[in-house]
């Protein structure tokens, strides 16, 4: 029986989930399963984006039939030929003999390599920026070589500002009945899997992902439809900034990943003590026993944390086997821009430390600390100082903004000291405060609304005296508070918070016309509740006035989570993009390979796709 999900009126998810797969691509464990996404666009023409893995072929075909509702399939867009997305092409072609298979020339060659059927009469090859008119939807094809394979392209639908992103923005984990990332607690339940997917599947190709992000920055995106995992329609900027960090190999968070290989527990003991010392100074740590933890989880953590510690016993005069595999894996995934410390162990000839150092020193911009610890079988009391020195050396490289305690007891705060950071630790919500004076409606964003009693039902708000809303409230003594939710887009904060009601009508262009019983406007969308109140007392408090008010009307509007100040900063406010490294070089237009340098020799051949110098353009 079919199981489809509607993404828009004319766009349907027709993919399927696999929760029995043990190892994705034969390498990556997927305890939460995996989804194979395929999307059917129902316009004047019907357009299917990619197919699925053979394990879920039957459900997929039922889904496509149901969503087509008896219509024929006009186009099958093959964005990626990896068989988990292309194996059903032949079956679809036999069911819809008139279908055109839209793909890059490289994809066509790969389809011929993988499958023994004649694709020629179905093929419709496209190049960069070619378009396909499906009716209301105009589709533009954008080449994304090496995001994950060389034939990959993505598709942009300008009508609904949707990016069909192939492997980009995907995640491990089967869908759970939901289809949108904002329907689940993505940060808590899926972000680790999204990072593990990125780091392991496309982590090696950071330059190529950067090239795609650069192209994507030139058009507005409201929905992202990847080949694995949830569809994105909210907080897209947040997820894009994760991709910016991962693809530029910039640490996502300050903290230390400690990976250890220990045969009898002595190397592990040193790693535990180091982790404990770091934690005592406020450093976040994450530990892995490399003989037990899946390598894909450790590679993923290495993309997350700023600092990496490798602790390994010596084995057969080399690095312990599982650690050796991990170091090779990290180098193969292009790990760079990290600070590293090394602990080695060896009962008669400790060599693992220098061997790890040698391997990692070939990676780009890896700062390997001089403070190494070399154990002879087990850690002795006298060596605790060496572990302490390593902890101090790691901590010394954290920026002040990382919140790490660099000093010891001597740096405890002095009596009477006021650290403004402590004030930022207070929790707040965010609200639109609205008032009315005659024909003038106005409003502003505030973060201090508190219920102070239930009998009488009374609230307090604090309003900055610099706001026109403040002056109007002092005069009129009545207001509404709209409680914003996590879905509130940045534009609401811009609209009510970033300019003055003295020069603008804050409601202009908002489309909001609702008024509460007191005649004052409120915000009807992206809010969880509305409270009207009448001021009974006000207190001058320097920069602000504190108003105490009786509630005159209150109603809930939605069950969405109310937004906190912290959530706003973490997820809604656009983050300043890190300045791009001042890189000079040339990028291959075919595969995205970047050759750094001022000049490109005329006889240069791309080491990835083997195209010549004329297929490169300056960065
Ligand atoms: Fe599931 Fe590279 O694909």
Secondary structure topology:
Blueprint: E1 5-8, E2 11-13, E3 16-18, E4 23-24, E5 28-29, E6 34-36, E7 39-42, E8 46-49, H1 57-68, E9 75-77, H2 83-86, H3 89-95, E10 100-103, H4 105-114, E11 123-125, E12 131-133, E13 138-143, E14 153-157, E15 162-166, H5 186-189, H6 191-202, H7 206-216, E16 223-226, H8 236-247, E17 253-261, H9 266-280, E18 285-289, H10 295-304, E19 305-315, E20 318-319, H11 321-332, E21 338-345, H12 352-360, E22 366-368, E23 373-375, H13 384-396, H14 420-424, E24 431-437, E25 440-446, E26 449-454, E27 457-464, H15 468-476, E28 478-484, H16 490-497, E29 527-541, E30 544-556, H17 565-572, E31 585-588, E32 594-596, E33 616-618
Parallel strand pairs: 8-9, 9-10, 10-11, 15-16, 17-18, 17-19, 19-21, 21-22, 21-23
Antiparallel strand pairs: 1-2, 2-7, 3-6, 4-5, 7-8, 12-13, 13-14, 14-15, 19-20, 24-25, 24-28, 26-27, 27-30, 28-29, 29-30, 31-32, 31-33
What this model shows, in words?
With 619 residues, the protein is of the alpha/beta class. It has 17 helices and 33 strands. The strands form seven sheets. The protein has a seven-stranded mixed beta sheet. Strands 17, 18, 19, 20, 21, 22 and 23 form a seven-stranded mixed beta sheet that branches. The chain has a seven-stranded antiparallel beta sheet with strand order 25-24-28-29-30-27-26. The longest helix is centred in the middle third of the chain and has 15 residues. The protein starts with a strand and ends with a strand. The relative contact order is 0.07. It binds MU-OXO-diiron.
């Amino acid at each position: 029986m079919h199981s489809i999900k509607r993404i828009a009126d004319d766009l349907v998810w027709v993919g399927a989930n696999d929760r029995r797969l043990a190892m994705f691509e034969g390498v990556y464990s997927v305890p939460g399963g995996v989804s194979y996404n395929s999307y059917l666009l129902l316009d004047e023409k019907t357009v299917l984006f990619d197919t699925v893995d053979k394990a879920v072929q039957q459900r997929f075909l039922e889904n496509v039939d149901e969503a087509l509702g008896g219509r024929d399939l006009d186009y099958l867009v093959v964005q990626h030929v990896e068989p988990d997305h292309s194996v059903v092409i032949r079956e679809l072609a036999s069911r819809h003999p008139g279908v055109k298979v839209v793909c890059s020339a490289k994809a066509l060659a790969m389809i011929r390599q993988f499958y023994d059927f004649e694709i020629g009469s179905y093929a419709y090859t496209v190049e960069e920026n070619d378009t396909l008119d499906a009716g209301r939807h105009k589709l533009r094809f954008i080449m994304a070589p090496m995001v994950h394979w060389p034939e990959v392209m993505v598709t942009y639908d300008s009508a609904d500002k949707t990016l069909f992103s192939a492997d980009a923005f995907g995640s491990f984990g089967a869908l759970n009945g939901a289809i949108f990332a904002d329907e689940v607690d993505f940060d808590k339940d899926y972000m680790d899997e999204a990072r593990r997917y990125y780091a392991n599947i496309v982590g090696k190709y950071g330059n190529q992902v950067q090239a795609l992000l650069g192209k994507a920055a030139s058009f507005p995106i409201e929905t992202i439809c990847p080949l694995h995992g949830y569809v994105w329609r909210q907080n897209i900027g947040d997820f894009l900034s994760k991709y910016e960090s991962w693809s530029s190999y910039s640490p996502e968070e300050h903290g230390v990943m400690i990976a250890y290989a220990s045969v009898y527990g002595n190397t592990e003991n040193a790693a535990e003590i180091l982790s404990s010392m770091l934690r005592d100074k406020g450093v976040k740590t994450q530990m892995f026993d490399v003989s037990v933890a899946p390598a894909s989880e450790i590679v993923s953590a290495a993309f997350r944390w700023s600092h990496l510690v490798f602790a390994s016993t010596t084995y057969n005069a080399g690095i312990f086997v599982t650690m050796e595999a991990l170091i090779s894996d990290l180098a193969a995934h292009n790990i760079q821009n990290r600070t590293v410390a090394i602990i080695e162990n060896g009962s008669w000839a400790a060599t693992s430390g220098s061997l790890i150092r040698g391997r990692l020193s070939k990676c780009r911009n890896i700062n390997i600390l001089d403070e190494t610890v070399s154990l002879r079988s087990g850690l002795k009391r006298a060596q605790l100082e060496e572990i302490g020195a390593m902890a101090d050396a790691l901590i010394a490289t954290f920026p002040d903004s990382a919140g790490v305690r660099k000093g010891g007891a001597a740096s405890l705060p002095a009596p009477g000291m006021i650290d403004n950071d402590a004030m930022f630790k207070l929790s707040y919500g965010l609200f639109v405060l609205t008032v009315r004076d005659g024909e003038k409606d106005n409003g502003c964003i505030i973060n201090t609304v508190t219920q102070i009693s239930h009998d009488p039902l009374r609230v307090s708000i604090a309003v900055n005296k610099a706001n026109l809303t403040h002056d109007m409230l002092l005069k009129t003594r009545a207001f509404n508070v709209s409680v914003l939710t996590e879905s509130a887009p940045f534009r609401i904060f811009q609209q009510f918070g970033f300019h003055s009601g003295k020069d603008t009508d804050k409601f202009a262009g908002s489309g909001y016309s609702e008024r509460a019983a007191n005649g004052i406007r409120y915000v009807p969308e992206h809010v969880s509740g509305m409270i009207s109140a009448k001021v009974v007392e006000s207190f001058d408090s320097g920069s602000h006035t504190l108003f105490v008010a009786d509630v005159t009307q209150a109603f809930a509007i939605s069950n969405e989570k109310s937004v906190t100040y912290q959530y706003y900063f973490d997820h809604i406010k656009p983050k300043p993009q890190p300045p791009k490294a001042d890189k000079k070089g040339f990028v291959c237009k075919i595969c995205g390979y970047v050759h750094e340098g001022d000049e490109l020799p005329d006889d240069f051949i791309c080491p990835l796709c083997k195209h010549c110098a004329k297929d490169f353009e300056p960065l």
